[in-house]
Amino acid sequence: MRIKQILQTKAEEQKISVKGWVRTNRDSKANAFIAINDGSCMSNLQVFVDKEIVTDQDVLRRAATGASIEVKGILVESPGQGQSVEVRAEEIIIIGDCPEDYPLQKKRHSNEFLREIGHLRGRTNTFGAVVRVRSAMAFAIHKFFQERGFVNLHTPIITASDAEGAGEMFQVTTLPFESFNSQNGIDYSRDFFGKKASLTVSGQLSAETYATAVGDVYTFGPTFRAENSNTTRHLAEFWMVEPEMAFCDINGDMDLAEEFLKYIISYVLENCAEDMEFFNKWVCKGILDQLRGVASADFARVTYTEAIAELEKANAKFEFPVSWGIDLASEHERYLSEEVYKRPVIVYNYPKEIKAFYMKLNEDGKTVRAMDVLAPGIGEIIGGSEREDSYETLIARIDELGLNREDYDWYLDLRKYGTVPHAGFGLGFERMIQYVTGMANIRDVIPYARTPKNCNF
């Protein structure tokens, strides 16, 4: 039985077998108390060892912190207050020994230290809780979209298109290194794909093709960004959730984004209660109240122009001064959600100069139908837009930004053949986990972080 299941079982003096890793072993002359954990939940299972029944002293010695063991015994009511049941051991079998240099001894370890042993950190309370929340949230995301009739789409990881137009992409090539030192330029016709290819920064453009074929779709997969950033909010490899809806405008986009955030937060609060109590107590005090507030709030909605007007009133408080046309910094986003509106806020209709080429141009010619969801405690958590559905306008935007039309021929065809209004958004999965758990560094909410100069494990 898994420990999570055992702890939910009534003590009826039934025989059980349980396997896990030793967290602690308190030994005395007559008996021993071994706490084991199998990763199924936060709580350990206590094993009571009567040395008159389990007489092999070598086995008890080897059942040290980190060792993997199997315990066969009787499930009984626990006399202690920590949990309702415990196991009275009849037999202990050592599965895997653990020497004394095991780095995860019974003490608190810093997250910086645990990043150095990323292959072992999942055995700690913190990272076991993170990965369980991550798993539950991934399931909730699929559940949300499947319940609403969305089609799950697997978009390419290797692409020839830069969806964001920023050029911060990892190149994929089979050309020899010498080709990149050639004075005659690089002949990509000799490369594997016959053209320059990279790892994708977004599945959005590919999702649009199927949204305009089968209706509402979503993609949930890995994306990559070659941005040389070492902040607590950036990864080089991360996961994105990107729905795309046909016959949908910016208002429908904002409606879905709000509903989506509330759904997955509520799901985690309901299904990961023990882990979330841990985060609330040890990682970020007050995170439960903050999340409950988001899940029950009506999100504010303001235009970018209105948001700038509010921020300009408090310009003296900011490191980066505010004026119309700037891209909002994290301090501005948090001020709006935490101080001005005191709840999540959706800012929409941004200046076209600071947004991507594919966003629908408003009638004023200055702004596009983009929207960002800003949440207390983190700032931007979702970014999206109504997409430009006019063939002529999209060509003009591509030319205006100096992009190569030929790279987007297929994308332009969506506007040429039966164009429809459509919209979508992107949610950075790791940033959402960071927000829900209160973990300070995004490197600690993904099993193996990929950042500049870091590709270990």
UniProtKB/TrEMBL annotation:
Superkingdom per UniProt: Bacteria
Keywords, ordered alphabetically: Aminoacyl-tRNA synthetase, ATP-binding, Cytoplasm, Ligase, Nucleotide-binding, Protein biosynthesis
Entry keyword annotation includes Protein biosynthesis: yes
Catalytic activity: tRNA(Asn) + L-asparagine + ATP = L-asparaginyl-tRNA(Asn) + AMP + diphosphate + H(+)
Residues in Aminoacyl-transfer RNA synthetases class-II family profile domain copies: 132-447
PROSITE patterns xref list: AA_TRNA_LIGASE_II (PS50862)
Any single GO BP term: asparaginyl-tRNA aminoacylation
Subcellular location: Cytoplasm
A Pfam family annotated for this UniProt entry: tRNA-synt_2
E.C. numbers: 6.1.1.22
Signal peptide segment: none
Enzyme class, spelled out: ligase
MF GO annotations: asparagine-tRNA ligase activity; ATP binding; nucleic acid binding
Main subcellular localisation: cytoplasm
Similarity comment: Belongs to the class-II aminoacyl-tRNA synthetase family.
Subunit record text: Homodimer.
Protein name: Asparagine--tRNA ligase
Source organism of the structure: Spirochaeta isovalerica
Gene name of the record: asnS
